[in-house]
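Cross-posted from the bioinformatics board.
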Amino acid sequence: MATQSIAFHDRVDRALDNRSLQTALGRATDRFVTNRANALALVDDFDDLRARGRAIRASALAQLDDVLVRLSERIEARGGQVFWAADGNAARRYIVDLARTRAVRTIVKSKSMASEEIHLNDALEAAAFTVVETDLGEYIIQLAGETPSHIIAPCIHKTREEISTLFQDHLGMPATDDIPTMTRTARGALRQQFLQADMGISGVNFGVADAGAVVVVENEGNARLTTTAPRIHVAVMGIERVCERLEDLGVLLQLLARSATGQKLSVYTSILSGPRRADEPDGPDEFHLILLDNGRSQIIGGDYAEALLCIRCGACLNACPVYQSIGGHAYGGVYSGPIGAILTPLLQPELRDVHKLPQASSLCGACQSACPVKIAIPDMLLRLRADAVAAGRTDAIERIAMAGWSQAMRSPTLYRVGGKLASLGTRLLAREGRIGWLPPPLDQWTHQRDFPPFAPRSFTELWAERQRRAAGDGR
Amino acid sequence: MSDAREAMLGRIRQGLARNREFLAHEALAAPHAPPPFVHPEHDADLADLFATELRKLAAHAHLCADHDAARATLRDILGAAGVHLALTWALPALAFPGLDDDLAAIGVERRDVAIAPTAAERAAELRALEPAAACISGVDALIAESATIVVLGGAGRPRLASLLAPLYIAIARRDQVVRGLGQAIAQLQQRAAPDLFAERSSLTFITGPSRTADIEMTLALGVHGPRDVHVIIYG
């Protein structure tokens, strides 16, 4: 189900035509937005917290070279190993080789966007290892052979009936659509995997340089089991996901949980510093940290460095009217929604149509308002659009339309006449104040969204009338 | 391997040569210090506040007048749940006198965790621990405004003793409750200065029962970790 090979336009079509996806997206994003708002209302000064969070993230990035050296040295001093992976290929090779030399058979994984980004599971499965995703949503996605559609809720696009069928087919569950029963079934199946796994692979929410630790945040407990039960723990971290000090977590964790799900803190925050010490009764005997570059060191010197402040909470997805309509898969990459429209072209430039993602925005600014580190997302989306135009990556129709617009803007007569015609035309086509169909080639727009009819009278006309009336009154 | 490291650092430095100024400017735009707590302060007793917040998470708080009352509460919880096997912190780490006698009196076998490094033994030991119906740990702090249990790793403090079983009981003293996360982190660092992780590999924050809303956004508890969480606060 290689969504990447389908044109962006068609992926959007598919999402808009999927009735159950539309229902699920509406329900999920509503819930996330409400829960976040309720959690924020309780905080004394959330904007102050956001400002601190932004400053903390910017500070770590401003000294990223130094911060990564401190982090890696601390972890090595604790008996952990650090691998500097220039790209996905290097990271995949290191982990596959490690699994081979340690005679690993089963690998359990907790949620990691970075390992999705580098298609780690494919590489491990190609090398004949059994890889099991253990986050409930990710597990369901894996059984279905799909990819996640939301940062926080990977399978919001699936109905309980679809999931029940999956569990009946793969886990021998009796027919039921009772959610607690389904959850228990998954728990039982995954417990067996945890007990026998040789290696656990996790993502990293934050690396903490001076503590020599990584932070893994979750609600289910699967990440705790992944990083505790197997004898080897491999943590995969994008190099930008760092902070300097442990006390920074006093800001970042508060922002992350409230922005992601509206919780005050997520259920489990594991702060892990190397392998278990000699007298500790459990925990992994080996700890490997993969520092994944994969294009990030290019971004930090480019025009979109600010996007690296992102803490992957998903608040901008939930706030975005476009994401609410098309969901995550339509974006084609690992990172979806407004921040994904910026990160995917930068981190996965090889994907089809990535330059079109910045168009999937109404530029309403809801994403920036929701962002816990105040990333200027709309501004960056506009600049990415300009980049695409400068690079000549535009459609013929778009170029003709823009040339026409440019002419009209330079000629008052043309502007007035064009406006009159458009006003008349759109009013003829409008039904109940909306236009659902425009003639070709303009139907490319109305195929996926309504178009507003032009106002019956232009601003120029209204202004002229107002002036006349004012002059009349004054007499 | 060190080549890869130097190459990556080189690329980062090259990038920062252009954007370090912008990032450093943003870094100075606000203080970095975490607030000690984030909700407006009010007069409620911190242990009461913790209990109120914990109950909102569908977990159970027990405020006990003294050590004896705490022991009775613990016996009641284990008895009501029909527990036969419990994983716990080592007794010296728990520092809760009478625990061994109480468990024996109600027919609960207490087991320490000691996972061997070799693959085969590790799997066998995990399998032996898995049937445990309860885990019991002490705490290093309780955070009142988020109802968070703070647990450090270390000798005699298995991570699995707050994770593996469907029922988890944390035992705390009233003077271990702080108001906010910022305070809790500052206190831990002060207590274990200069290096919190010198003798342990983990620090865990636990806020309520294991939960998921992955299926149709419907809340389900106890998906991987404990479903029933009890915090006993005494003193």
